[in-house]
Design goal:
Helices cover about 10% and strands about 35% of the residues. By secondary structure, it is mainly beta. It has one domain. β1 and β2 form a beta hairpin.
Length: about 250
């Protein structure tokens, strides 16, 4: 799995063609304009800490700027909606996080997208409206797979078996995307996601990497995925080899 991840992101970072021989950037000439890169998306460090007394995993990314300060501009509709994410690709299995699937890259992500809200159980801005705060960074589990129809070479895997394949906290979209409600804490140059250990099957033996990426929703073009990766701003390891391990405290 680590080789699979590294191959796809290395292709993006070096500007190479996809594994299929098709140049995804050439296939998508002017459909997408990613959010402009800033120091807020320039990763400098990442950690996953296991606090044993609390049974808690703390996923952390540090940036050169201010974590979460850069957010995407609204497109005005869901089709074409931008999604900005701080992502932790992992070696966790899909079943560890509640997905029913045999393959795919399990990733924890903190995302911001002003055009829609996909956390119907959570009111992140405490406004009393559970459907108005997609722009606030919030947590997702996603399952990624190869897709050479987008420049990033990866997309969230899709499924029509929503009730069967996704956990009850999923927002009901036809893809492997869950809204688990983990707290996202922004503090200076650090973003943290707080994950109870029992929400990953009690595992602390997984490896991970850190990525800042731009994704976009597609509802009207059947030649592209529903939610694909269009630009990677940074990969902490440089080659997405998932070299980092959980540190116990």
């Amino acid at each position: 799995m680590r080789f699979f991840l590294a191959t796809f992101f290395l292709l993006l970072l070096t500007g190479a063609t996809s594994l299929s021989g098709c140049d995804p950037a050439e296939a998508q000439p002017q459909l997408v304009t990613p959010t402009t890169a800033t120091a807020d998306l320039d990763l400098t460090a990442a950690r996953v800490r296991y606090i044993e007394d609390l049974g808690l995993l703390v996923f952390e990314q540090d940036v050169a700027g201010t974590a979460g300060a850069t957010r995407p501009e609204a497109a005005g509709q869901v089709d074409g909606a931008p999604v900005l994410g701080y992502v932790f690709p992992t070696t966790l299995s899909p079943s560890d996080v509640g997905f029913r699937a045999d393959d795919g890259i399990v990733a924890l992500a903190a995302t911001s997208h002003p055009d829609f809200d996909d956390t119907p159980l959570w009111d992140e801005d405490h406004s009393g409206d559970y459907a108005d705060d997609g722009v606030i960074f919030h947590s997702h589990w996603v399952l990624l797979g190869p897709d050479d129809r987008v420049p990033g070479g990866l997309a969230v895997l899709e499924t029509q078996r929503i009730a069967e394949d996704l956990p009850p906290t999923a927002p009901g979209m036809p893809m492997y995307l869950d809204s688990p409600g983990f707290s996202v804490v922004l503090s200076g140059n650090t973003i943290r996601l707080l994950v109870p250990l029992d929400r990953v099957g009690g595992r602390t033996d997984f490896q991970f990497d850190a990525v800042a990426a731009y994704m976009e929703v597609n509802q009207g073009d059947d030649t592209r995925p529903l939610l694909g990766v269009y630009e990677v701003y940074d990969v902490l390891s440089g080659d997405l080899s998932l070299p980092y391990t959980v540190a116990s405290e």
